[in-house]
Amino acid sequence: MNDTDQSDLEVISRLADVLESRRAMDPDSSYVASLLAGGPDAIAAKITEEAGEVVEAAAEVDDKHVIHEVADLWFHCMVLLTERGLRPEQVLAELERRFGVSGHKEKLSRASAE
Questions:
Q1: Cβ distance 16 to 78 under 8 Å?
Q2: Residue 91's closest CA among 4, 16, 5?
Q3: Fold for domain 3-113?
Q4: At what angle do helices 31-58 and 3-22 cross, to 10 degrees?
Q5: H helix runs in the chain, sequence order
Q6: What is the DSSP secondary structure assignment for residue 100, as one 8-state letter?
Q7: What span, in angstroms and rounded, lies between the C-alpha atoms of 24 and 27?
Q8: What does the domain layout of the chain look like in residue ranges?
Q9: Cα–Cα distance between 42 and 9 in angstroms, integer?
Q10: Residue 49 to residues 55, 62, 84, 93, 96: CA-CA distances in angstroms?
């Protein structure tokens, strides 16, 4: 892992820590606390909205808009992880596990496990 990788991981870990700290806040004073108070359905609705905005941005030529919308989507996915008591490092470990595995094989392994 190079310095950039470590710095990126630190950003993600710090954000996860901040999101967790918002759990104890008043939902009227914290956006994250209000999402967490709404439970998984409220968070899922926000993720759906943000995913749609990523799709819309993908049709444009403005890369900055794509980056902005993907950041929003990742943020809200991290709120879901927080709500579930999960950490982004667990998602990163899953992504790392998939290196060297054919996407087709990985998808088939998930289908057979379900």
A1: yes
A2: 16
A3: Helix Hairpins (1.10.287)
A4: 130
A5: 3-22, 31-58, 63-84, 88-97, 103-113
A6: T
A7: 9
A8: 3-113
A9: 27
A10: 10, 19, 20, 27, 28
- Collect all residues with Cβ–Cβ distance below 8 Å to 49 and sequence separation of at least 6: none
Separation between Cα atoms, residue 60 and residue 101, nearest integer Å? 32
**CA-to-CA distance for 26 and 20, rounded, in angstroms?**
13
**99: helix, coil or strand?**
coil
The candidate with the shortest Cα–Cα distance to 72, out of 57, 87, 91, is 57
Do 69 and 54 meet the contact criterion of CB atoms below 8 Å apart?
yes
Q: Print pLDDT tens along the chain (114 aa).
A: 455 566 888 999 999 999 999 999 999 999 999 999 999 999 999 999 999 999 999 999 999 999 999 999 999 999 999 999 999 999 999 999 988 877 777 677 767 676
Instruction: Give the end-to-end CA distance of the chain in Å, rounded to a whole number.
Output: 34
Distance CA 101, CA 98 (A): 5
